[in-house]
Structures
1.
Amino acid sequence: MSEYLGQVRAIVWKDLILEFRTRERVAAMGAFAVLAAVLFNYAIDRTAVRPQTIASGLIWMTIVFGGLLGIGRTFHLEHEDGALQGVLMTSAPKDAIFLGKTLANFLLLYLVAIIVVAVFTLFFGLDLGPRLDLLAAVIALGALGFVALGTLFSAVSSGTRMGETLLPILVFPLLLPMVVYGTQATGRILAARPAAEVTANLRMLTAFALVAMATGAGLFRYVVEE
Amino acid sequence: MPGTAVPPSEGKGIMKSKGSAIMVSLVFVLLLVAAVGPLSAAWPPSAPQATPLAQQSLRPYVNVFIAYAIALLAVLGWVISIGRRLARLERRLGE
Amino acid sequence: MSLRGLRLTGTTLAAVGLLLMLTVYGLSFFWVPTEVAQGVIQRIFYVHVPAAWVAFMAFGLVALTSAMYLWLRDERLDRAALSAAEGGMVFATVVITTGPLWARVAWGTYWTWEPRLTLTLLLWFVYLGYFLVRGSAENPERGKRFAAVVGIVGALDIPLIHLSVLWFRSLHPKPVVAKPEGPTLPAPMLITLLLGLLAFTLVFLGLFLLRYTLQTLRDAADARDRRATV
């Protein structure tokens, strides 16, 4: 077990170091967050609708679009340099590789989510409410399911000629549960509703994340085998 | 067990050129039947309408007709698509 | 069953199904009474519901054969998945085109985010994904596996999506609309609906078998061409 976790950790570490050195994906996703917020400001009529009321939806959709940008590149490096073979030939079981990649993506996406929330709070004068811990949990659970699906299908799409353009088509339909439960929970948190109103959403987000992770871990080996 | 070695069929496929002509005529007849059916029932209406909206316009009848046509055309479209591909394949296997 | 046998069975099933379908058409216009609340437009029900039933049943077949394909690696299972996917997409298209036709008259607007219709729309896109990964894969063999993965993940997620769509709807209640089926189904309507379900299922099964033989022949032709060039 500890060997397994060690392998997972090694992959997470490798991807994070790579990302840290180049900062490509963080830069792209972070810039996206800010620019999207700017465009949103001009896209919505602030006399007709208060940003506070639609903030939840805007935040989540920005996370989705920006996240997909970064997740699409998960296997880009390996694919280009043929490094995927190398990773696969290690003794690490395929699901460990998947979990490692997913976790690395999760950390990356969570960082971006924080940036998105911060930027939107700044630009739209949002009141995040008293329960920042709940907000953190909702975003974490939603992001986990998202990256699990995204990582699995990123491996699929990098084996196709269409590449990353395929990712929205594959991921968006399946992402609906995260959008429904995530935005509703976030909306309630921003409206300072009692925590009890959010627990059902948290449960569903957890279920979604678990199903996505388990499915991804189980099917990843079929995607990457030659 | 359907294996990989398939002998070229003895000349009787789903579609040959004469067969496709018959298929197309059959399709045409079926379409006519399908078209006549709803139309003949649409006028006059077979039962009094409960909603005033329906009394005033043909829209419901038109939409029902289109929907039934879509279902039929979709099925026939798939049939024809499979048939044509089978015919092409048989020609290819015959060579 | 031999390829010839499959073809015969497929053609027979499809022909019977098609005739039954036309019978249902006739019944729905000459025999079944008009539903009181919605009026004439409710008759779309007799093609819309059977098509939805087939679209989802076909996807179940896709998921099942895909999972077994990944496990057993039998090409026949992949051919079955592909054939089922093609049929499922055809019928899903029927559902999402007839739905707005119904909605326009019954509820005054083309799209109402009705949970089942929305679910079918998303199912259509999962089907699209199935064909896109299959067709654009750099390696055809991997493409089959990619498609199988899409089928399996789709099947696992569809129930979750359904739950979330219902949940969303329950919190954003629309004006109460008549259930498409009506409070209780009088006998003529029920019979016609069941016949419609049978008809569409037979058509799907028949054409599924034919599509399967097509794929088998195609693989055989490809294999033969490969041998010829060796």
2.
Amino acid sequence: MVAKFNPGDKVRVRIGMPPTHFRTPNYIQGKVGKIATVHGQFRNPESLAHGDDGLPKQFLYLVRFEQTEVWKPYTDSPKDTLFIDIYEHWLEPAYPN
Amino acid sequence: MQEHDHNHGAHAPIMNKQDPSKYEKRAWAIQSLLVEKGVVSADEVRRAIEDMDSRTPALGAKVVAHAWVDSAFKARLLADAKSACAELGIDTGALAALVAVENTEAVHNVVVCTLCSCYPRAILGLPPDWYKSLNYRSRVVNDPRGVLKEFGLELEPEVEVRVYDSTADMRYLVIPARPAGTEEMSEEALAQLVTRDSMIGVAKARTDLP
């Protein structure tokens, strides 16, 4: 399995509320960020936490968001950032890249 | 059975303050079943709790102090924190991955788990109550500077405040900046400057010994 995204890629977080143990906070859904790190592959908590095997493993990424892009308005320093771990199936490419 | 005739003095009977909660009862029921079915033994459960209770921020402080005095170790810690901890004889367990992030003049990292209370317990022990509070978890992501100010930490606008929301398999350890004027201190003394809160990122390291 090859990671779909590479560091620097612009991604948008999918929106959804599945009835499972999903690990994508509501506040970041729909927001655009950039891949900071590819952490590797991990068992999917959305199946693992419900007694299944969590397979196939999912790529997990550290995604960097600009605070000014996440909160409107964010009135503190424009340098401030949020780094969040998000599984691949919650990300889609954001254009223009 | 021995005669119960020694003198207690007067005291109220020792009783539970309240009935166990629904979740305590459920946990006990599950544990009893697991033991009964031979999946785990009561002694294994006891040992796991004993191991958890033995973990304190002193472990993280030891790691940070070593990183301060040994830049090659710091590089290894930033690249692979679990292996670096193992070098110091610290077993970080099999469950979660550990990532160390460094506070510098340009970047200040602070860690939260907005979804629950993920925390690098293997090297910091149990999280403080405020770390698990809805107040901290909901506010540090959208008003980090305001929250840090409440902890007594004010940062210049030139510093990038970087909030880590540990939502998944990663656990984050902040390496606070080494205070100026500590060049002559021993590694053991330096470790005393590294507090729990400085490794979560809501404070800087102490500048003098406690």
3.
Amino acid sequence: MSIPLDSSGPSVNDFGCQTECTWCDGCGDYGIMAAAKRALVELGLAPHEVLLCFDIGCHGNMSDKMLGYRVHGLHGRVLPFATGAKLANPNMPVMAFGGDGASFSEGVNHLVHSVRSHYPITFILHNNANFGLTTGQASSLTWQNQPMNTSPNGIPEDTIRPMEFVFSLQPTFVARTWSGDIPQMTRVFKAALQHRGFAFVDVLQACPTYNKFTSHEWLLEHCYDANAEGHSPKDLEAGKKLACDTSAKVACGILYQTEDIPHFYERLIPRQNIKTTPVEEVAITDVSDLLKEFV
Amino acid sequence: MHRVSLKVTGAQGQGINSVGEMVAKGLKRSGHHVFGYREYNSVIKGGHSSYQLDIADSHIESSETTVNILVCLNYEGLKRDLSTLKEGGILLHLIPSWKFSKDDEQLFEDRKITVLYFPMEKILKKYNARPIVGNVLVTSVVWGLLGRDHHNLKEMVKEQFAHKGEKILDMNYSFIDEGRQFKDEEAAENELELPAVDSKRKDDLLVTGSEAMGMGMIHAGCRLYAGYPMTPASPLLKYIAEKQNETHMVVKQAEDEITAIQMVSGAMHMGTRAATATSGGGYDLMSETLSLNGIIENPSVMVLAMRQGPSTGLPTWSGQGDMLLTIFGSHGEYPRMVMAVSNAEDCFTLMPDAFNYAEKYQLPVTILTDKHIAEGLYMQQQYDLKKATIERGIVTDQKELDALTSADRYNPHAVGGVSPRWLPGAKAATYCAQGDEHDAEGNVDETGENATQQMDKRMKKMETLKAELPEPVLYGDQNPETLIVSWGSNKSAILDVMKDQKGVGYLHYTYLWPLHTKKFEELSLKAKRTILVESTYQGQLDMLFKQECGKGCNEQILKYDGRPFFCDELLSKLSL
């Protein structure tokens, strides 16, 4: 990890605020927030130069624990809100944060369409495999045979495999990291922010209060940096295989990335060669040409 | 007022709209006043649909229940619509050897109706042409029955088909000659006397409410549109999408209504102007997001194009039953504005206002329209393109931005409840657009004191907004004995009916929430009769009046069959 020595740029402190954190001791959100701030700072972004959009859940309480232009919206809906914002001003980096409940239960449709539409935003999945803020109900990513609040016998459904799911949608950026490794998260978040299209980052997140099956210790034991061990993110099939096979070890890092696919905004024919943004274009507009066909 | 009408009926997919639209355009260009009204079922092919054109010597925006000329492209119309023919009317149909019942024959005799069978199939066969191109044949016969010069029709056909090549154009010219020949040989005496011409209106637009609204939004500086198809909001999406290469707008057909309104909200939050439209069911899905926009004080503009009934109801028909939904729907209490357009004039001119109110007061604005407006074909005087202003209420000056603190964003002491809004990306203190109850900076604050203060701040905007909104407009007699009260598309039929009446006033509501009642109270006190005209079961505006001022109308004319108020029907119900 490189800490910039040039003191003229933004610093992590610039993103700090006085609001008291309300997460449990040992919550993975502390690490994710630290990495998010570092990634932004290392990319030279000041708080006013980024839009951070949060879903509802424990992670959403980050919305007033750091600075930056922030939105704390509705449960399951962070992706379309963030997308609308990005399309209005494509020059602005937009990060969306959502939990596994919001992204694989309530708003799973938005995830599907965000991947297939190649919206140029970064999505950080806070994956603690349960509904934490509502006191530990099973999500669709909760393992089977885990007694949870409202499912004392474990879930009768099958568990969604998020990597198989996302890879089936022809993604252009898939990464996995975990909440105990701030340097790795920082590296991955930076790459995601710099990615051309939709960047999907699955952050395996410790939830010491409700997730007893993938604890911080379990993650520490199982996660490894696949890029450091030579995995090249260029190969889709290799990335997918590595991502989906978590039987022995959990591969982390950038698992797959291609910059060759145009993103949504680039595909919009009416926006070709237009230098201004929709935000800049708001004005009373002459429609006399449009009126002609009706005479 | 002298008015006549003609109706073309047939199955969907038979091209009845193109007959109606072509005749409308031709008549308008000759200086006639026209209004076009469509009925159709929720199917692609088949069903029973119609296109009615009413023609008058002065401006009209309504239809009659009866017609002078009925054109039936298939037998459904012969079974269902004969009784709508007026005395001395003309029936033109395409069904070979159709046997009319005894009752039908009696009706023809009683009303002196001329029945014409037009052998379209035979003519099409002669030209080896597909049935769909027969529209021009039918149009040509109708053109003759209206006593029009076929030369004009050829000019219009040229406009429409010239790009398809000479062969197709020539075929259509031949069709026009065939139609004229039929008219001259079989119906030489049958010509409808048209109302007098008004040469001043030749250059009017002929436009549907949806097209007018699309242009109005573009005029207002709307740069992003997201929508999910739902009748009768789809024509607006279609129009805006079709024009995207000219307007360079970002147009997104979203995966559902929630996505559409979320994208619009994100785009408005970032600082562009964005809009979406849907019908009742889609609005239900969007309502949670409206509540979010209420608390984060995010401007948004959405259109609810109403149809009749709960659930899927009558999906291709009109109604006004969703008005109270827009005022009371969605959870929590938050400031909002509801306005209703009534015709193609409103659809254009009120769009900049809708965006201005949304942005100035930082709240969701719902624009109510209905199927009747969305698909009605209006003659519209050229819009004044110099009138609209833009008011955004955004802090953009760098000096002012430098002076802002995060706590200015939701400052509970802001004058009129309207606190400064600045856009993400501005070099200034940042804030959180916080969907939880929050303090002035947008930090979560669950204390009772703060919750009260912030609610007071937000709701205060309703008073500020109400003070700026105009009172409803009184048409007709300014001291009326009979006061009609209504909103939305009913205005058209009401004004058409009132043209020949004395002592009648019409109080028209454009702004439904917040609601002004002063003028209503004053006028209803003096009037002998105060009549609510509304396309609902419950008389919703009356419910609002009673809630807001304790007084209501003493009569109600309500309708909830999916059909608009027809002018003759309304006149008889009003029993003036």
4.
Amino acid sequence: MTTLLHWLPLLGVLVVVAGFALRFNPVPVVVVAGIVSGLAAGKSIGEILALIGNSFVSERALLLFVLTLPAIGVLERAGLREHVTNWIARLRGLTLSRLLMVYLAIRQILAMLGLYDVAGHAQTVRPLLAPMAEGAAEKRGSPLNTQERNDVRAFCAATDNIGRFFGEDVFIALGAVLLIQGFYSQHGIELEPLQIALWALPTAIAAFMIHAIRTVLFARRIAGNAPNSATPALRPDDAGKSESC
Amino acid sequence: MLKIEQAYWLIALFLAGAAWLNLRERRWSHAGFWLVLAVLTAGGKYVLDATAAHHHLPAQLAGVGVIALAVLSPRMKRGQLVERDVSAREADAKRLGHRLFGPAVLIPLVTLLVALFGGYVVIGGVRVFDPVRMTLTGLALACVIALIAALWVTRTKPAAGLAEGRRLLDTLGWAALLPLTLAALGGVFAATGVGAAVSDLVRMMIPVNSALACVIAYGLGMVLFTVIMGNAFAAFPVLTAGVGLPLLIHLHGANPAILGSLGMLTGYCGTLFTPMAANFNIVPVALLELPNQNDVIRAQWKTGAMLLVVNLALMYFLTFRF
């Protein structure tokens, strides 16, 4: 019986996993998980309510990021998103590998500044990056076949994801850093948000290097696939050939 | 003196303003959601002080408020919010160019300056920044400065700050609350013995005396849970309460900052593998008209796998050394 009681609170974990996996709205899922693990631990309703209330308000620092929204909103009202779009459009003319690498770097740096929603699949990949990448790939001298076109598009989306994920963790106002800090402070460990953000830098750099190398290999493969790849002047990854903006 | 408590009041004020704008437009669920959140944010100190004095009613009421948020959140439908005309935005973008980045850069810059030098700022023998959570106080100050700079650079009226902030807040909707609720769940898990149960489960599966085995269990656990749930944030409290804290930090003396940061980033590698992270991996498949649901995952999983190995190595070599 005691062993059963020891394992019972795991039901809370089960609720979280099942709730997210079944795509329920995450906020009620998390609250229900809290109630379930409280009941499983044999607490009364009053104790559970107080536990949830106290845990919640002691984490209110995680709402600090909402204070960034008025400033970013005002900038968006004055065309921040349009400016980013125009800026990326100016990369037209780069080779495929350079285009993707520069985009990756821009995406990472913007995310590090907290501007992770000015670019994205709907904002920049579909309207800009994907068509530009297709155009750059076709500079090899022959049009892309369907399979290659899909590969280029998918690689663009992948590049956007990787740039965003491994940039945003360096921005201290982001949920990730504050979540880590808040979690530890619930367990009596007080950390500086700056430390947490700083230790994300090695991974950010590694992510850029790994994906940049894969980008070069990918561009080489696409260039080499051209039926008339005997025309060496059109290899996209030839150094020094890119027309700059 | 600038304190974190003032930042909480500022948040509450902004949330209440957003609630008011929604109320005027009869968007009841949004209005109620932001209003309850504003009250919880402003009243947080009162609740915690009361609990410390063994008065449990305020905390219980806060618990009821959290349940109200959970009830309201599925009702927050995304409506179309009015935005400024796109041609006007284009014209401004052309005119202002890179100057638009200036105010945005101020947010991390001012925060960093306060974090590094805030302790030395003294006026009339009084410290300007309260040392408790000074970085976060700096962040709030940075946001205010950035807003003023944004209004100035773009020659916008201050009222637009609330209207535009509210537009972004409503676009986020309940997602704005997700990190907070998950961090709070970490506290509930700790108080109800979930962490202990998970770590006992892990003890049965791996040789916990080996630091390497614990690092691998933590990292791969983050990946596995992220793949199942589609969200590294959700995996973090479960794995860190169950493996990170008891086994790596308490048993093997790991550095919590490094472990937390790299643990989260290891979870992000898992996000690259899973169709459950629909916003990142499935939505672009539709947007780019790709034939196979997993095309984006196929393009990125190798980067994710290599980065996973790098992260595990960084964790093993850094977290016990600093």
